[in-house]
Amino acid sequence: MVRVVVADDEPLITAGIRTVLESADDIEVVATVADGGAAVAEAVRHRPDVVLLDITMPVLDGLGALGELRRQAPDVRAVMLTSFGTESNVLQALQDGAAGFVLKHCAPDELIRAVRAAHNGDAYLSAEVTRLVLGMVTPVAGRRQQAAARLAVLSPRESEIAALVAEGLSNADIGRRVHMSEPTIKTYVSRLLTKLNCANRVEVALLVRDAR
């Protein structure tokens, strides 16, 4: 079982998240809390696999709680959850070691995928967050050759998948585009991360962008 702590100060949102997660037979919500300080305390107490952290909470916000988790429970993976996804929050969360970043209006199955990905040691960012990050970054002159050289190790099919990742498409959307199953695309993306030495799909997208 993937053991999860949910931290959100809106009771209705918390109840909805719990219902969605526990609809999956491999996920158990071990605690729900309404502020970042309590999230850290419950993470230390329960040692869950994943903590879902809302960005805006009283006492200690999600970013503050993320920093405390890195210090007090470094083995716990944190997925950030927000209703707005502002640029500064996305960058700060990624820099502070968040294992995922999803928006509150995401589909239920995407939330489940994010939790599972975090538990498996992968980074999960929704397609919208990927596009947001790409929109923030201005390519730096001189990186094109280096990026192109790194991408040269990819097969034609891997290059095609990388280009679709750079469009901010989800695995399901990529699968529909190239007529492959979602699990097959997931395998391709994992291979891309390994071959390109990238931590997550956003880094792959940035690399493709630099090479253009």
Automatic annotation (TrEMBL):
InterPro entries: CheY-like_superfamily (IPR011006), NreC/VraR/RcsB-like_REC (IPR058245), Sig_transdc_resp-reg_C-effctor (IPR016032), Sig_transdc_resp-reg_receiver (IPR001789), Tscrpt_reg_LuxR_C (IPR000792), WalR-like (IPR039420). Keywords: DNA-binding, Phosphoprotein, Transcription, Transcription regulation. The keyword Phosphoprotein applies. Residues 3-119 form the Response regulatory domain. SUPFAM superfamilies: C-terminal effector domain of the bipartite response regulators, CheY-like. Residues 147-212 form the HTH luxR-type domain. The modification 4-aspartylphosphate is found at residue 54. The keyword Transcription regulation applies. It comes from the Bacteria. Gene3D superfamilies: 3.40.50.2300. This is Response regulator transcription factor.
